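Thread: quick sanity check before group meeting

JM: Hey all, I'm pulling together slides for Thursday and realized we never actually wrote out the predicted structure for the chain we discussed last week. Dropping the sequence here so it's in one place. If anyone has concerns about the input, flag it before I start.
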Amino acid sequence: MAFPVILCQRNPLWSGVHLGLSCETVGSAGCLTTDLSMIMDFLGIYKNPGELAQWPNLYTSQGELIWENLPGLKLIKREFGYYPANIQAAIKNPNQYVIVEVGNAATGKTHWMWAWSKTLFGDWRVADPWNGTETLASTYKHSIGPIIGAAYLYKPTV
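JM (edit): ok, ran it. Output follows.
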C-alpha cells in the first residue's frame, strides 16, 4: 500500500466546520470524518473534512455519522469489541479499509484512527487525525484505551 496522506482534524481550514447541523465541529469531534476523508483521498475521491462534514444527510442532529449515507464508500460492517484477526484480514484485502475505535475511560468518549498495517510486533500502524500523524495504536493503551471497535469499508465499483 502506498503511504496515505495524513490529515489533522484540527487544521484551521476545517476545524470550525460543524458536523452536519450539530453543535459538534470537525476540530472537536471530527476524527471519524477526517479518517474518512483520508481514505477517500487515497481512493481518488477526495473531499476535505470540512466538505465531508457538510455533506447532506451524513450526520444526525447530534453529529453522529449515518454510515449508510457515506459518499463513495460503503460500510461492510461495524464491529464492537476487539477482533484482531478480522482487522488483519480486512487490512490484507486491497479493497477494504479499516477504521479502529479506541475508548477513553476518563471522558467516556471515543477516538477513531485509520489502521492500514500490522507491525512485526503485533501492533497496528494508524493515521491519527487528532495530531495528523502516523503512530501505533498501542500508544493509546494508557492515555485513552485499547481498541474497542472497528468499521470495515470498501469502495463500490461503478
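AS: nice. The chain has one domain: 26-154. Residues 31-42 form the longest helix (12 residues).
JM: adding both to the slides.
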